[in-house]
Design goal:
Elements: H1 28-39, H2 42-53, H3 59-81, H4 84-87, H5 91-94, H6 96-99, H7 105-133, H8 139-156, H9 158-187, H10 201-216, H11 235-263, H12 269-277, H13 281-314, H14 322-343, H15 347-376, H16 399-410, H17 424-428, H18 435-462
Length: 463
C-alpha cells in the first residue's frame, strides 16, 4: 500500500480526473475518521431532536427509530464508499456509467442543489448557535465565519478535509462525551423524562426515514473521499470503515438531540442544549461549530466537483484544476450564503421539508447505481468513457436508467407525507411515510431485469 507524509495543507491539484496509482494514498481508518468526525456537529443533534419535537416520540421509541434508520441507511452509504478505491473518480462522474453522459446531468444538477441546501442549513445553524452562546457575534457574522472556514478547506481540497475531520474525530468526540456526562450527572433529566410523548407509528416511520436519509444523503459524494485510496484497500474494508464511522458518528449526537428535545418546551434545541450544558456550553458550541465548518467543507467540495462534472460534460476539452475549484467554490458559497441569510427565520420548518423532499429523489438514484455497480457491471467500468461527450460505450442517454429513475420517483408519490403534499396511501396510514422503502423495493428489481434484457439485446446486435 502506498504511504505518504505530504502535509494536510498541501493544495490538491486534481478535481474530477481519475486518480493514478502513484497518487493513491491513505488507510482504511481514514474513512472511519472522515465520517465519524464530520457527523459530530450541531445539525446532527438537531436532526436527532426531530424524533421527539416534530414526530413526538417518547425516548426509547425515538432511539430505536434513529438507530434503525442509521444502520439501514448506512448500508447504502457504505456500498457507495466501497466504489471509490476501485474506480478512482468522483461518484457523480461514475454515474455516467449508468445514465449516459447527458442522461446523468439531471441527477448531477439535483446533487448540486442538494449540497447547496445542506451547506446553507449548516451556515444558519452555525451562525445561530454562535450568536446564542456568544451574543457579541451576530447571527449574520457567525454565518459568514463558518462559511469562510469551509471555503478555505474546499480550496485546499482532499488532504486538508481528511486532516480536518481526523482532528475533529478526537476533539468533537471528547466534547460529545462530556456533554452526555454533564446532562446526566450535572444538570440531570426531568423526573417524567421517560413519560413524555406517546408511541405513534407515523412518528416512528418519520423518524426512521429521516435517519435513513441522513445516511443516504452522503451517497452522491461518499466515494469522493475514498477515490484516493489504493485499490488494494479492498471493497470490504472500505465498506466497514465507512459504515461504522458514519453510523456511530451520526447515532451518538442524534441521541444527544433526543435527550435535549425531550427536555425543552419550546422546541428550541440549541438554546436548550446551551442552557443544559451550563459551564461546558462555550466549549461545546465552539467545537461543534468548528465541526459544522468541517462538514460544510465536504458539502462545498463535492458540490464543486459536481458542478465541474456538469461543465466537463458540456465541454469535454475543459480540464478543471485547483484554480477552477477555488472559483466555483466561491460562487457556490455566495449562493448558499444568500439562501442562509434569507431563510434563517424559518430554519426548522424549511430544513424538515428539505430533507424529506431529498429522500424522494435520492432513493431511486442510489438503487440504480448500486444495482448497476454490484449486480450488472460487477465493478468493471470503462473509466475513459466517463470523460467523453458522447459517453463512449455508455452513450449519451441510457433510457433504461432514466426511465427507472422517473419510475422510482412516481411510485413514491402515493406514499409521500410532507407539509407540502401527502399521498393517498400516506393519508390512509395516518401520515406514515414509507415512500423510500417502496422506491427501493420497486426500482432495484425493475432496473436489474431491464438491464439484463438491454445487455442481451446489445450482445445480439454485436453478434
Amino acid at each position: 500500500m502506498t504511504t505518504t507524509h505530504t502535509p494536510a495543507a498541501t493544495l490538491e491539484l486534481s478535481t474530477i480526473q481519475p486518480i493514478a496509482a502513484h497518487e493513491r494514498h491513505g488507510r482504511a481508518r481514514d474513512l472511519f475518521t472522515i465520517w465519524f468526525g464530520s457527523n459530530i456537529m450541531l445539525l446532527t443533534v438537531v436532526t436527532g431532536a426531530l424524533a421527539v419535537t416534530v414526530f413526538k416520540l417518547p425516548f426509547f421509541a425515538a432511539v430505536l427509530a434513529l438507530v434503525l434508520g442509521n444502520l439501514i441507511g448506512g448500508i447504502f452509504m457504505a456500498l457507495h464508499s466501497a466504489q471509490g478505491p476501485q474506480l478512482g473518480v468522483p461518484q457523480m462522474v461514475q454515474t455516467r456509467g449508468q445514465f449516459g453522459s447527458f442522461g446523468s446531468l439531471l441527477v448531477v444538477a439535483l446533487v448540486v442543489i442538494m449540497y447547496l441546501g445542506f451547506f446553507a442549513s449548516n451556515l444558519v445553524l452555525g451562525g445561530q448557535s454562535l450568536n446564542a452562546r456568544f451574543p457579541a457575534i451576530g447571527t449574520d457574522a457567525g454565518i459568514l465565519l463558518v462559511g469562510v472556514v469551509s471555503v478555505v478547506a474546499t480550496v485546499f481540497g482532499y488532504r486538508l478535509i481528511h486532516g480536518y475531520t481526523r482532528l475533529m474525530s478526537w476533539l468533537s468526540g471528547a466534547v460529545l462525551l462530556a456533554s452526555f456526562v454533564w446532562l446526566l450527572f450535572v444538570h440531570g433529566l426531568p423526573a417524567d423524562f421517560l413519560q413524555r410523548n406517546q408511541n405513534n407509528l407515523p412518528g416512528f416511520l418519520g423518524a426512521l426515514s429521516v435517519a435513513a436519509l441522513w445516511q443516504l444523503a452522503y451517497a452522491p459524494y461518499v466515494s469522493d473521499y475514498s477515490r484516493y485510496m489504493p485499490q488494494d484497500t479492498g471493497s470490504r474494508t472500505a465498506f466497514w470503515s465507512s459504515y461504522w464511522g458514519c453510523c456511530l458518528g451520526s447515532i451518538l449526537p442524534m441521541l444527544l438531540g433526543v435527550m435535549v428535545g425531550l427536555c425543552v418546551s419550546d422546541g428550541n434545541v440549541i438554546a436548550g442544549l446551551i442552557e443544559m450544558t451550563g459551564g461546558l456550553s462555550a466549549l461545546m458550541v465552539a467545537v461543534f461549530s468548528i465541526g459544522i465548518a468541517a462538514t460544510n467543507a465536504m458539502n462545498l467540495y463535492c458540490g464543486t466537483l459536481s458542478t465541474i462534472t456538469v461543465g466537463q460534460t458540456l465541454l469535454p476539452a475543459w480540464t478543471a484544476r485547483a484554480g477552477w475549484r477555488a472559483l466555483i467554490a466561491l460562487l457556490l458559497f455566495s449562493a448558499s450564503l444568500a439562501i442562509a441569510l434569507l431563510g434563517q427565520d424559518n430554519f426548522m420548518a424549511n430544513y424538515t421539508n428539505f430533507i424529506l423532499l431529498l429522500l424522494y429523489v435520492l432513493v431511486p438514484w442510489s438503487a440504480i447505481n448500486l444495482v448497476d455497480y454490484y449486480l450488472v457491471a460487477h465493478g468493471q467500468y470503462d473509466v475513459p468513457s466517463f470523460f467523453r461527450r458522447d459517453g463512449g460505450i455508455y452513450g449519451t442517454f441510457n433510457w433504461t436508467a432514466v426511465n427507472c429513475y422517473v419510475l422510482g420517483i412516481l411510485v413514491q408519490v402515493p406514499f409521500m407525507s410532507t407539509e407540502l403534499y401527502t399521498g393517498v396511501v400516506a393519508r390512509a396510514m395516518n401520515g406514515a411515510d414509507i415512500s423510500w422503502i417502496v422506491g427501493l423495493g420497486v426500482v432495484s428489481p425493475v432496473y436489474w431485469l431491464a438491464s439484463r434484457k438491454r445487455q442481451r439485446a446489445l450482445q445480439a446486435a454485436r453478434a
